[in-house]
Amino acid sequence: MKIPGLIQIERWIKQTFRRGNKIILIKNNKQKELKRWQWCFFKGLEINIKGVCNTIIIHEPYQMDSLKRKGRISIYGNNNKIVFDENAGGCPILQVASSNSTLSIGRNTVFNSTCIHMLSENRNIEIGENSMFSVCDIMFGDGHSVIDKNTLITINIPEKDLKIGNHCWVGYGAYLTKNAGLADNSIVAMGSVVTKEFSKENVIIAGNPAKIIKTDVSWNYAQPSQKLCEYKDNKMCEIEKHQGEINENTDNL
């Protein structure tokens, strides 16, 4: 008969030292695997893994440093992979309850308390470069099955992987469901519910369900009254000319 205190210690050891879970930092093409005790001290990110054979890969430099809040990664399945490319991060809240899935996040893509839920087995999420996500949700999968009454077939399994292109801006309170998808240079308006894939680039998507309301647009990190900004060498910097100067020069052509 085991002593209750020993049972708790044994349970803690099993949860803490699950086999095959790895956190790997990559800098200048050199890999460094963090020791298990170092996970708790990773700056700006809380990590909780209860499955086996999961891998988190973070390319340096990374954006995981927040003074008031931390990003969070919780993995409950097995054989999953999460990849942050250079200068990606911010404050993501990632919950992986599936197995055999991959979440890849492109360079310079940042999250502001963005919740990403991965619930479908053998399905992947790919997020491109230079994208920006406000406080919004990506729900890739469902927590429960919807079954056809006659055939007894589950009908709410995602049809394919979820892909979000480069330079996308997803606004506050937006919601992307399991069959969503965005092309390059897409803007998702505040509170929109995206339920399908949009393959057209340079569009504004809005509504519930979301639809294209404007075409031939792009966006920039700066506020309308400020100078335009862009990324250079993994850092956001101002473009030399003001928007008004650019428009004036264009009118004179």
How would you portray this structure in words?
With 253 residues, this protein is mainly beta. The chain folds into 2 domains: 216 residues, UDP N-Acetylglucosamine Acyltransferase, domain 1 (3 Solenoid), CATH 2.160.10.10; 32 residues, no CATH class. It is built from 2 helices and 21 strands. The longest helix has 13 residues. The C terminus is likely disordered.
What brief labels describe this structure?
253 residues; mainly beta; UDP N-Acetylglucosamine Acyltransferase, domain 1; twelve-stranded mixed β-sheet; seven-stranded mixed β-sheet; disordered C terminus
The percent range for strand residues is: 35-45%
CATH topology of the largest domain: UDP N-Acetylglucosamine Acyltransferase, domain 1
Give the C-alpha Rg: 21 Å
Helix content: under 10%
SSE arrangement, N to C: HEEEEEEEEEEEEEEEEEEEEEH
**How many structural domains in the coordinates?**
2
Structure class: mainly beta
- What is the helix tally? 2
Short précis:
With 253 residues, the chain is mostly beta strands.
Topology of this protein?
Elements: H1 4-16, E1 22-27, E2 30-33, E3 45-49, E4 55-59, E5 71-75, E6 81-84, E7 89-96, E8 102-105, E9 110-118, E10 125-127, E11 132-133, E12 137-140, E13 162-164, E14 169-170, E15 175-176, E16 187-188, E17 193-194, E18 203-207, E19 210-215, E20 229-232, E21 235-238, H2 243-251
Parallel strand pairs: 1-4, 3-5, 4-6, 5-7, 6-8, 7-9, 8-10, 9-11, 9-12, 10-13, 11-14, 12-15, 14-16, 15-17, 16-18
Antiparallel strand pairs: 1-2, 18-19, 20-21
